[in-house]
């Protein structure tokens, strides 16, 4: 039968805790970073962090691999809602109704509410009444139980609950570290994106080789010269992922979105996307020239030879010759 909370004692612990005091120094976005980092350290996979009103109410979507007694791995889908309420401001039924309806429509295996405060008695009774009726399990982590979970990961506790002065830089560093770990797993065996080197301590630069045919120069006749290997440097800002990394192509390339000194004009606009999505989009932009179909003006390189090449390319594709 679906469960709410881990067990009855945990379900009531929020009323006995600090009601948000431990996390009062965090803003709502920082609290979401904490929740995501905790899920990562607990073994959740494929964590997608959704923001804004267009996400149908969810903050985080993740998967958790559960091992059954016979050794079979079952991948469970979790929807996680983060509620950062201040001291004395509990989570009530009115804060959960939209999330419950959305989960009812999408049918995850679990709906998890994480709060820095606690659930009101009415909210807990409401969840208990819905438990037998829902096709998914409902769990909630209130303030004191959340504290216990964070205690298991000293680095996480230090970054989000203890360090105050360099907090932004440390949060960026831990986010980058986790993104790198995820990316290394995701691109394993993929020759088209190779992570060559991680630079900095803590890491703040990544050196990649991206595979795919792109123009590196034009010969004396004005014909393009191609290469299928391109070295790219990602430079992370101290407030990553609020600000996206700077991208620099280190090997020669002639591209409408790459300045002559190598800086890339990359219109990626989702700072919360996994690093793999960022890199795949960059690779596609550098090697497909699909974004240039609309024609000039190009933001970075207006070499007339490049313009002539692109016009001929798309004219040929449109006519089928």
What is the structure about, briefly put?
33% of the residues lie in helices and 22% in strands. By secondary structure, the chain is α+β, with helices and mostly antiparallel strands.
Question: What can you see in these coordinates?
Answer:
With 321 residues, the chain is α+β, with helices and mostly antiparallel strands. Helix content is 33%, strand content 22%. The protein contains nine helices and nine strands. The strands form two sheets. The chain has a five-stranded mixed beta sheet with strand order 1-2-3-4-5. It is elongated and about 80 Å long. Mean pLDDT is 81; it is low at 1-20 and 52-58.
What labels describe this entry?
5-stranded mixed β-sheet, 4-stranded antiparallel β-sheet, 9 strands, alpha+beta, 9 helices, 321 residues, Ubiquitin Conjugating Enzyme, single chain, disordered N terminus
Number of helices: 9
N- to C-terminal distance:
63 Å
CATH-level-2 architecture of the largest domain = 3-Layer(aba) Sandwich
Work out the number of β strands: 9
Shape: elongated
Q: How much is the radius of gyration in Å?
A: 24 Å
Give a topology summary:
Layout: H1 8-12, H2 28-41, E1 45-49, E2 60-67, E3 73-83, H3 97-106, E4 110-115, H4 121-130, E5 137-141, H5 143-151, H6 154-162, H7 167-186, E6 193-199, E7 205-218, E8 224-235, E9 246-249, H8 275-288, H9 304-319
Parallel strand pairs: 3-4, 4-5
Antiparallel strand pairs: 1-2, 2-3, 6-7, 7-8, 8-9
């Amino acid at each position: 039968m679906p469960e709410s909370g881990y067990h009855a004692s945990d379900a009531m612990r929020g009323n006995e805790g600090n009601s948000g005091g431990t996390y009062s120094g965090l803003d709502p976005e920082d609290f979401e970073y904490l929740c995501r980092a905790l899920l990562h350290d607990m073994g959740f996979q494929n964590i997608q962090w959704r923001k804004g009103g267009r996400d149908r109410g969810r903050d985080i979507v993740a998967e958790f691999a559960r091992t059954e007694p016979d050794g079979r791995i079952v991948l469970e889908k979790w929807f996680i809602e983060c509620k950062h309420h201040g001291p004395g401001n509990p989570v009530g039924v009115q804060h959960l109704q939209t999330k419950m309806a959305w989960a009812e429509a999408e049918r995850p295996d679990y709906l998890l509410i994480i709060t820095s405060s606690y659930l009101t008695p009415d909210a807990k009774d409401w969840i208990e009444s819905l438990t037998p009726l829902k096709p998914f399990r409902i769990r909630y982590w209130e303030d004191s139980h959340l504290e216990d979970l964070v205690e298991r990961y000293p680095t996480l506790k230090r970054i989000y609950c203890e360090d105050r002065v360099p907090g932004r830089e440390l949060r960026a560093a831990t986010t980058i570290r986790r993104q790198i770990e995820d990316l290394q797993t995701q691109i394993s065996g993929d020759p088209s994106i190779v992570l060559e080197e991680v630079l900095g301590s803590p890491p703040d630069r990544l050196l990649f080789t991206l595979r795919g045919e792109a123009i590196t120069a034009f010969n004396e006749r004005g014909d393009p010269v191609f290469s299928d290997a391109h070295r790219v440097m990602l430079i992370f800002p101290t407030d990553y992922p609020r600000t996206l990394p700077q991208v620099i192509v280190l090997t020669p390339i002639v591209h409408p979105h790459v300045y002559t000194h190598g800086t890339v004009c990359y219109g990626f606009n989702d700072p919360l996307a996994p690093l793999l999505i960022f890199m795949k989009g960059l690779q596609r932009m550098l090697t497909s020239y699909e974004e240039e179909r609309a024609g000039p003006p190009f933001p970075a390189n207006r070499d007339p030879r490049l313009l002539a090449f692109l016009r001929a390319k798309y004219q040929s594709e449109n006519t089928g010759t």
